[in-house]
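>> Question from a student workshop board

For tomorrow's exercise we were told to take the sequence and the ligand below, predict the bound structure, and bring the output to class. My setup keeps failing. Could a helper post the expected result so I can at least see what it should look like? The ligand is thiamine diphosphate.
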Amino acid sequence: MLAKEILNLVGTPNMGAQSTRALMHHTLGNGEYNLFQRMTEPVVCAQAVMHPQNVASVEIGDILKALAQRLQKHHSWKRLQVSSLGEPVGQGSDPITAAALYPRWANFLRPNDILVADSGTASMGLGFARMPAGASFHNQTLWGSIGWATPAAFGVAIAAPERRVVLVTGEGAHQLTAQEVSQFGRLGLRPVIFVLNNSGYLIERLLCKDPAIAYNDVAPWRYTELPHALGCDGWFTARVANCGELDQALDAAGKAGTGVYVEVVTDAYAASPLALKLHESFRQLYK
Ligand SMILES: Cc1ncc(C[n+]2csc(CCOP(=O)(O)OP(=O)(O)O)c2C)c(N)n1
Ligand SMILES: [Mg+2]
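>> Workshop helper replied:
Here is what the output should look like for this input. Compare the format with yours to find the bug.
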């Protein structure tokens, strides 16, 4: 039941420091220790400050039990109707369009996979895929902080070593946290990583007045060299720029038995249907 509720327990400097308004880190240095409490107040259901005077002896388990008794169960969450993304289009030297890519990615998934997708056009495309039995899909949906998915996939891989972890990230998001790929190598984990290289922040291009504006470009990295540079030895890596290469790489990735890192190169404007829909209505979004 607590899956839909979040309890955030935060430590503070000791009461002595607070009463003297001591200058300490994790504060703004102005002696005000309740600033963060005040900031979060409007966006939480309830909050309380626990200190020795009001809580003689309480353990986190007791708090969770008491909270669980008070919270109502949610049974009526609306769910999206999912359907298959259909058959992939394109073959051989055909470019990797959205209609070529997303059904192929959906077909690549196996039962019990864990898919982690970063914010951007790719998660918008995969969000409508029918997942195989027992598979899970993690993304941030709203308030997404790009770069989250690469380390999140590492966390997932650590937490569920018996399941295959598939990371799909735009290259813009990946550039913020790509160093975390090294953690998979360090701990001998074998994720399947797809980096969608569409030469920039595509979702941002689709949501601004001048799609080609320079701040949506990103530096052109040699992505497939990253695993090696980051200590991930023996991984299968590939850079694919047409449907034939993509098919080969997906096939090899499925059989690799090692870590996998595939850079998927598309046109700068090859966007998933939801991303295109947002583009069509962006003027209303920002009225
Ligand atoms: C930390 C952070 N900075 C900026 C943004 C705004 N933002 C959201 S999506 C996005 C672009 C993502 O680009 P990419 O990962 O290449 O995916 P694409 O849309 O190109 O498929 C940006 C800059 C954000 N959400 N979080
Ligand atoms: Mg991109």
